[in-house]
C-alpha cells in the first residue's frame, strides 16, 4: 500500500490552504451549535466504524484490538464527549478584575479561533494522536489541514476516508505523504501548527514555523524516568511500570524510559518485574511471542535501531536480567530488562521508544535527582513511594512536563490535565480546555465609559499635578 507519493501536490494543497482562509474568516463567528455539530460528525463516524479502526491498526503493526479500543478509540471518544459537555463554558468570555488605576473601565478575555491550523500526527498512536488535536481545533473554530503518518498507511487512509465523509476540503483536509510533503506544508503561513513527534523533528518544525511567526504546540518526548524510593510498594510499582512500558510494545511517548531504584529494593524489583511480564503476556507459558496482547515494532528501521541498542548495551557490560530475544522477520522484540547500565551505552543517551527497560540503582535520593537533572527535561516523571517528604523533594527538584505519583501513563487520559512537555520534551499543553486554548487567541478587551477619561491629567503638558498623580500610582511594597 503506497501512499508515500502524495495524491495532492504542493500547488494543490496551497490552493486548499487559500480556500481555508475564507473558512477561517467565516468560522471566526461560528456558534456553539455549529462547532458542536462538526465534532458530532466525527463522533458518529467513529461509532459506526470501530471495526475498521481496529483492522487498520492491526494491519499497520499488529496492535491488539483491546489495546486499540483503550489507546486509540477511547481517548478520541472521551475527548469528544468532554468537549461537547464543556465547550459552552470554554467559549464564554471571562470577565477580569479592574485594578484601582483602571477605575471606570471594564475588561474581559474573549476567545477567538487562531485561524488555519496544521496538525502533523505521529505513527505510534496514529488515530488518537491525529483526531484528538483535531477535536481541539474544531472546538476552537479552526479549519485544519491534517497530515497523518506515512508509516501507518492503513490508518492514514482510514482517516482520509473519515475526513472526506465528514467535511469539505476547505473545512478539514487530509494530506497524505512523506517528510517532503510535511516540509511543503510547513512552508505555508499557518496560524497554528500542532506537531507530535521526536524532539529532533520538533526543532525543524519550530524553525519553519518561526519564518511565519506561527504559534506552535510541540508534543515531543524524551527519557521519562521512574524513580522508586525505599518506601515504595515494589509489587505495585512493578506491575504499573510493566503495563506503562509495554503497552504498544513500548512505542509510547509517556512510557517510563528507565528505572531508578533504591539499592535496597533492586533484587525484589527484578523479581516482581519478571513476574509481571509473565502474568501479563505469558500466563500459559506458551511464549510471549505467541501472546495476542503484545504488539510489534512499527517497521524494520525502528527494529534495527532497538536491536542495535540492545547489542550495544550487552557489548558494553549491561546485565541481561530478562528477555533479549528478537525476531526480525516478525519485528518482535521480547520485553527486556537490563541492569549494570553505564553512560557510554546508547540506551542511556537516546529515547528508547521500545520494550527495552534499563534499571539503575541509587543509595541516596539526591543521586537519583542529580541523574534526572543531568539529562534534558522529560515529558513525564514517575515517582513510586509512600513518604511525602521524599516525593515532594523530587517534585521540587526535577523539572518535567507532567509528573505522576504511584502510577504510569494514566495522565494522558485525564481531560482536565494540562498534558505536554517542557523545553526539550515539548512546548504548549493539550487535551480538553488546554487543547481548546492551544488553537485559540485569548483576546483581551478593555471598555471605557463614554465621557470618562482616566488619563486626562496625565497628558502633556506635564506639571506638578501630573507628578503627584503618578507618584500616588507608584507604590512600594
TrEMBL record:
Catalytic residues (positions):
219, 253
An example of a GO molecular function for this protein is: aldehyde dehydrogenase (NAD+) activity
Annotated GO CC locations = cytoplasm
The answer to whether the entry has keyword Oxidoreductase is yes
Q: Is NAD tagged as a keyword?
A: yes
What are the UniProt keywords, alphabetically? NAD, Oxidoreductase
Residue ranges annotated for the Aldehyde dehydrogenase domain, each copy included: 11-443
Instruction: Please give the biological process terms from Gene Ontology that the record holds.
Output: aldehyde metabolic process
Q: Would you indicate the residue range of the signal peptide?
A: none
PANTHER family tied to this protein: ALDEHYDE DEHYDROGENASE (PTHR43570), ALDEHYDE DEHYDROGENASE ALDX-RELATED (PTHR43570:SF20)
Family per similarity comment: Belongs to the aldehyde dehydrogenase family.
* UniProt name for this protein: Aldehyde dehydrogenase
Amino acid at each position: 500500500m503506497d501512499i508515500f507519493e502524495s495524491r495532492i501536490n504542493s500547488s494543490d494543497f496551497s490552493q486548499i490552504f487559500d480556500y481555508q482562509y475564507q473558512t477561517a474568516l467565516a468560522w471566526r463567528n461560528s456558534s456553539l451549535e455549529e462547532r458542536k455539530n462538526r465534532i458530532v460528525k466525527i463522533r458518529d463516524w467513529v461509532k459506526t466504524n470501530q471495526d475498521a479502526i481496529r483492522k487498520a491498526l492491526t494491519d499497520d503493526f499488529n496492535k491488539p484490538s483491546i489495546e486499540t479500543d483503550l489507546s486509540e478509540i477511547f481517548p478520541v471518544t472521551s475527548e469528544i464527549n468532554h468537549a461537547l459537555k464543556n465547550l459552552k463554558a470554554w467559549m464564554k468570555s471571562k470577565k477580569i478584575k479592574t485594578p484601582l488605576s483602571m477605575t471606570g473601565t471594564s475588561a474581559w478575555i474573549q476567545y477567538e479561533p487562531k485561524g488555519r491550523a496544521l496538525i502533523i500526527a505521529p505513527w505510534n498512536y496514529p488515530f488518537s494522536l491525529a483526531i484528538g488535536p483535531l477535536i481541539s481545533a474544531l472546538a476552537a473554530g479552526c479549519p485544519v489541514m491534517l497530515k497523518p503518518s506515512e508509516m501507518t498507511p492503513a490508518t492514514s487512509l482510514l482517516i482520509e476516508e473519515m475526513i472526506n465523509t465528514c467535511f469539505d476540503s476547505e473545512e478539514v483536509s487530509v494530506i497524505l505523504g512523506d517528510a517532503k510533503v510535511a516540509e511543503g506544508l510547513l512552508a505555508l503561513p499557518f496560524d497554528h501548527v500542532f506537531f507530535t513527534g521526536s524532539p529532533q523533528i520538533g526543532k525543524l518544525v519550530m524553525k519553519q514555523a518561526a519564518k511565519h511567526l506561527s504559534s506552535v504546540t510541540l508534543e515531543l518526548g524524551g527519557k521519562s524516568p521512574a524513580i522508586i524510593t525505599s518506601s515504595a510498594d515494589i509489587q505495585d510499582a512493578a506491575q504499573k511500570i510493566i503495563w506503562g512500558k509495554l503497552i504498544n510494545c513500548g512505542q509510547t511517548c509517556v512510557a517510563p524510559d528507565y528505572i531508578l531504584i533504591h539499592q535496597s529494593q533492586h533484587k525484589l524489583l527484578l523479581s516482581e518485574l519478571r513476574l509481571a511480564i509473565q502474568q501479563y503476556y505469558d500466563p500459559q507459558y506458551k511464549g510471549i511471542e505467541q501472546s495476542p496482547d503484545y504488539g510489534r515494532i512499527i517497521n524494520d528501521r525502528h527494529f534495527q535501531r532497538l536491536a542495535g541498542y540492545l547489542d550495544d548495551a550487552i557489548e558494553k557490560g549491561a546485565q541481561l536480567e530478562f528477555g533479549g530475544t528478537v525476531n526480525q522477520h516478525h519485528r518482535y522484540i521480547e520485553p527486556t530488562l537490563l541492569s549494570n547500565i553505564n553512560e557510554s551505552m546508547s540506551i542511556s543517551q537516546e529515547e528508547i521508544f521500545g520494550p527495552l527497560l534499563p534499571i539503575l540503582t541509587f543509595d541516596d535520593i539526591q543521586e537519583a535527582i542529580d541523574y534526572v537533572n543531568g539529562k534534558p527535561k522529560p515529558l513525564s516523571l514517575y515517582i513510586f513511594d509512600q513518604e511525602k517528604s521524599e516525593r515532594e523533594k523530587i517534585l521540587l527538584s526535577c523539572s518535567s512536563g507532567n509528573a505522576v505519583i504511584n502510577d504510569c501513563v494514566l495522565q494522558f487520559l485525564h481531560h482536565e490535565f494540562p498534558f505536554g512537555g517542557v523545553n526539550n520534551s515539548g512546548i504548549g499543553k493539550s487535551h480538553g480546555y488546554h487543547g481548546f486554548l492551544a488553537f485559540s487567541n485569548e483576546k483581551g478587551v478593555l471598555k471605557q465609559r463614554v465621557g470618562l477619561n482616566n488619563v486626562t491629567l496625565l497628558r502633556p503638558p506635564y506639571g506638578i499635578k501630573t507628578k503627584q498623580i503618578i507618584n500616588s500610582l507608584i507604590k512600594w511594597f
